[in-house]
Amino acid sequence: MTLLQQIMWGSLYLGLCFVVEVLLLVWCTLVIVHLSIRLRHLSRAMRTAAVISVSLAFIVLAHTLQVWLWAGVWIWSDVLTDWNEALYFSLVTYTTLGYGDIVLGPGLRIFAAFAAVAGLLAFGLSTAYLVALMSRVFEGRLPR
């Protein structure tokens, strides 16, 4: 891929990851509001545990879907040949761990870096979401 193609396709998949993250966090918020209202008869500790558990499940799902999205890119474009290798590479790139045992050629390095940027942005957004949620929990402002 040319540099321009890498930037274009990388931006596209980065945008798709952003859409996945935002949609799942919005869905999570709707579920939490509904859950908080339905569980109002439980103790505050139980409601808090439920809210934290649901939010963490949605966040893990969002990150997992994004890793699978990037793995699909590597498989569909014939860069990596099997799903195990593609998922592994996607996960270590998305989390910015980057072991370096699988290295792409120069024509894909910029494109692959977009997977790391997607992970950084998604982890940042997830962290901000959890901080905002926990602030509401500690202030006792969840729906009752």
From TrEMBL:
Superkingdom of the organism of origin: Bacteria
UniProt keyword list: Ion channel, Ion transport, Membrane, Transmembrane, Transmembrane helix, Transport
Coiled coil, from the record: none
UniProt domain Potassium channel: residue ranges: 67-135
InterPro entries assigned: K_chnl_dom
Entry's transmembrane regions: 12-37, 49-71, 86-104, 111-134
GO biological process, one term: monoatomic ion transmembrane transport
The protein's name in its UniProt record: Two pore domain potassium channel family protein
Organism annotation: Ruegeria pomeroyi
